[in-house]
Amino acid sequence: LLAQKELKRYVRRVADALDIGLIDGRSAVSHIVGRDTSNLTASDVSRAAIESLAENTSDGIIAPAFWLAVFGLPGIAVYKVINTADSMIGYKSPKYRTFGWAAARIDDLVNLIGARLTGLLFVGAASLTNPFASARGLATIWHDAKKHASPNAGWPEAAVAGVLDIRLGGPRIYNGRLVDLPWMGDGRKELDANDIRKALKLYDQTLILTMIIVFFCWLFV
Predict the structure, then answer these.
(1) Fewest C-beta in 10 Å: which of 12, 22, 140, 191?
(2) CB 44 within 8 A of CB 29
(3) pTM: predicted TM-score of the whole model, two decimal places
(4) Alpha-carbon distance 22 to 39, whole Å?
(5) Which tens digit of pLDDT belongs to each residue from 5-26?
(6) What are 86-109's pLDDT values in tens digits?
(7) Per DSSP, what are the bridge partners of residue 188?
């Protein structure tokens, strides 16, 4: 519950900051992404916030809930240790390459199911109010999830891109170097704070759907 509220609070803060101005938006989004934010446009800031929301819904909420459901408290404890190790040392840099790759690969493995569940939950939540958006989300997962550098993050990000009819991914700067990543989705490239709020609405719907599913599983299993 705490993770749900914190994630929403940080992402909503980016939308509110963008309403004030671009500099405020860059500052707010720098707290939730690892890329260089100093030269981001308003559209880039919005995209970064939405991508962070999508990926962290998987890593911070759905995947931990899955391991809690399967193995109880030991399951979620082990998951958090792996996730923390990946955050600290699982980077593709010379400093951590020798031993950090193991943390990153194990983290990919334990998030394999959670990421796919998250993508499908985003699509399922959209189907309750907009079946066309849901179908678009499924199609985007099918065509674009594999384009992501991560074997997992592409699922929730492609789902959100499809449902909201926007484009996520694309070029960005990491450690002073331009990284030319492919686009996910066929919708609009130009985004703003309202798109962040639409993503937050989808996030809320997804969490409600998740709680309903968990309740019925608890009731009948």
Answers:
(1) 22
(2) no
(3) 0.92
(4) 10
(5) 899 999 999 999 999 999 999 9
(6) 666 555 555 555 556 676 788 889
(7) 166
